[in-house]
From TrEMBL:
<dbReference type="Pfam" id="PF13458">
    <property type="entry name" value="Peripla_BP_6"/>
</dbReference>
<feature type="signal peptide">
    <location>
        <begin position="1"/>
        <end position="23"/>
    </location>
</feature>
<dbReference type="InterPro" id="IPR028081">
    <property type="entry name" value="Leu-bd"/>
</dbReference>
<dbReference type="InterPro" id="IPR028082">
    <property type="entry name" value="Peripla_BP_I"/>
</dbReference>
<dbReference type="InterPro" id="IPR006311">
    <property type="entry name" value="TAT_signal"/>
</dbReference>
<comment type="similarity">
    <text>Belongs to the leucine-binding protein family.</text>
</comment>
<dbReference type="InterPro" id="IPR051010">
    <property type="entry name" value="BCAA_transport"/>
</dbReference>
<protein>
    <submittedName>
        <fullName>Amino acid/amide ABC transporter substrate-binding protein (HAAT family)</fullName>
    </submittedName>
</protein>
<keyword id="KW-0732">Signal</keyword>
<feature type="domain" description="Leucine-binding protein">
    <location>
        <begin position="39"/>
        <end position="380"/>
    </location>
</feature>
Amino acid sequence: MSQMNRRRALQLLAALGTTGFVAGCGSDSDTEPNANRSPVKIGLITPQAGGFKSIGDDITNGFQLFLDLNDQQLGGHPVELLTADEGDTAKSGKAAVEGLLKQGVLALTGVVNSAVMVGIRDTVEQARVPLIGSNASPSSLQSVFYIWRTSYVLDEAGKALGRYLRDQLPANGRVAIIMPENVGSPDVVRGFRQEFGTSDPRIRDEVTYTSATANPGKTTYASDISKALAKKPTAVFCFFAGTAAVEFIKQLREKYAGPIYAPGFLTEGAVLDSLKDNALGIQTALNYSADLNNTSNRVFASAYRKKHQVTPTTYAMASYDAAQVLDQAIQLAGGKPTPQQVNLALGKIGQIDSPRGIWQFNQPRTPQQKWYLREVQRDGRVLSNVLINELATLG
């Protein structure tokens, strides 16, 4: 563990009262005084209403938790956290970014919707202010200099499950692929087909695309589900999140009781609570599980549960890590950081000691990280995404 990460672990564990661990590890002292460092403004962009609001809340909670455990500072600078509503379109996202830029933010973070991320790309790059995206990550976002992501690239979720399901599905099996018609779905499908085998007859059927609305009704998916199930698949592979995930699974379960596989967003956070027994047995691939047994996750998950009385999600974790990488980059940038200096420093921070496990930025400015298989099981009276095994290292 690096000196900076070790110092942070000591601070966080001390905040949780784990004095025995702290005593055993010793202490570090800063080489550069931070007392006189001026405040910095960080802009947080999330949906504040609609079907993705719960994801936005998790992102806000994760970033704020890091600040809570670090004296409301990043890189030794007091932080003023400014928030803006990304809405649900590229236009509303661009307005949010422009509003934050006018307030003089040192860096931006957040962004849930892939369509918003694509829509704000040019605005961010032209402003030369780093954006540490903590959710939306379409693979089409290429050749960027100021946009970094602490989440994933969407095709990776498909790849991780493609490798796994290729070996699990019977030779005479058939997969029905059902996706919303949005920016991210082609990424997921491409990654899945690539690793499963594009010529494999078990996935040869056409993808069934559904409405991409974030606020579906009780029959929004009914006809598309019937179409996908007409060929009697032995498994369903799908990609939904937020309120849409709840409605899709409820409508699917009315007609289908077989195996369901998906990127982990399908059963993450508030979605799992809403699905109840409809979620049992669903297997998902994700870059994080609250079950992971490492020091950083024990600190993070314990503090998150204590503050919010719920299990942390991948959205909260990625936003926590966004704060962590900004903390390190701002520290490297020195006493009077500029957005351009922070952006350059982001490329120098190396490995991140994260709740998901160790990861680092790759050349496209996305994480090289492990992906995990999880299954929804009953844990006492509650449902939980139980960690099954490690699937792959991607990125």
